[in-house]
Amino acid sequence: MLNPIEGEIFYVDKPLGDTSFTVVKRVRGVLRKHLHVKHLKVGHAGTLDPLATGVLIVCTGHQTKRIDELQAGIKEYVAHLRLGATTPSFDLETQVDATYPWEHITREQVERVLQEQFTGAIEQVPPAFSACKVDGKPAYKLARKGHDVAIKAKQLVIDDIELLQCGLPAEPTLVIKVVCSKGTYIRALARDIGMALNSGAHLTALRRTRINDVTVDRCETMDTLIARLEEEDYVSPDQAEQERLERERQENKRRAAAIKARRNNTKNQTTTTK
């Protein structure tokens, strides 16, 4: 039986086009219906852009307290880049705004740039089309209204970056695998790689393949998860509360016994010393 109030963790393969909040909203809606409650904590550990797919961890109930812990882990992505053109959002959300020569770029040059400039601790300026806060507002809301958005560079760590496919010299396309720390914007990485190659670049596809030990092959599709949640049995809110109170009573008893044991031990040591 599922106990969403006490807390469950679901591993979702986020579909293309959905926001991370859309996934949370759908899960919350199904759980609230089956539990007959108006309010239920549901959140995700690490945002994925609508045009990205892959691992999204969804937590419910008391497990939402683990969100910071879960999203702080190592992440792995497979990213598709197109050289020679940029977009304001650094991906396909917006139209190409500038084109650049790319014929001078070789596979060897790409591999060298990736290893020398994009491995280890690096500085990165997040995209204007991102959830970073500027004057208390998400940057993307300002950017979509045409405002200039100034975001400070952040330090992050790229543990590994690997060129998986290279379309050069026939096509200006790259596929890379990136293993990185929390806070890495792969769209911004595409921008910076293009600049480092004396050209431009933007992201054409992105898939998160891992968060810590949660790999994409362990994830359910959105439709599969929703169908499963519709068929599951649930611990009722009243039962969940009773179980919580019983656990608290047992924990309090354990703590009281531990305190008593420490006091007895201290008393015995004092008696022995005298």
What is this structure, in a nutshell?
The protein has helices at about 20-35, 65-70, 105-115, 140-145, 185-195, 220-230, 235-274; strands at about 10-15, 40-45, 50-60, 75-85, 85, 100, 120-125, 135, 135-140, 155-165, 175-180, 200-210, 215, 220.
Flag low-confidence runs. Answer: none
Output the CATH topology of the largest domain: Pseudouridine synthase
Topology, number of strands: 14
SSE sequence, one letter per element: EHEEHEEEHEEEHEEHEEEHH
Number of helices: 7
Give the termini distance in whole angstroms.
Answer: 57 Å
Key words describing this protein structure:
globular; alpha+beta; 7 helices; 2 domains; two-stranded antiparallel ribbon; ten-stranded mixed β-sheet; Pseudouridine synthase; 274 residues
Can you walk me through this structure?
By secondary structure, the protein is an alpha+beta fold. The protein folds into 2 domains: 9-71 and 216-235, Pseudouridine synthase (2-Layer Sandwich); 75-210, 2-Layer Sandwich (Pseudouridine synthase), CATH 3.30.2350.10. The protein is built from 7 helices and 14 strands. The protein has helices at residues 20-35, 67-71, 107-117, 139-144, 186-196, 222-231, 237-273; strands at residues 9-14, 42-44, 52-60, 75-83, 85-86, 98-99, 120-124, 133-134, 137-138, 154-166, 173-180, 201-211, 214-215, 220-221. A hairpin with a 7-residue loop joins strand 2 and strand 3. Helix 1 packs parallel to helix 6.
Compile the SSE list and pairings.
Layout: E1 9-14, H1 20-35, E2 42-44, E3 52-60, H2 67-71, E4 75-83, E5 85-86, E6 98-99, H3 107-117, E7 120-124, E8 133-134, E9 137-138, H4 139-144, E10 154-166, E11 173-180, H5 186-196, E12 201-211, E13 214-215, E14 220-221, H6 222-231, H7 237-273
Parallel strand pairs: 1-14, 3-12
Antiparallel strand pairs: 1-3, 2-3, 4-11, 4-12, 5-6, 7-10, 8-9, 10-11, 12-13
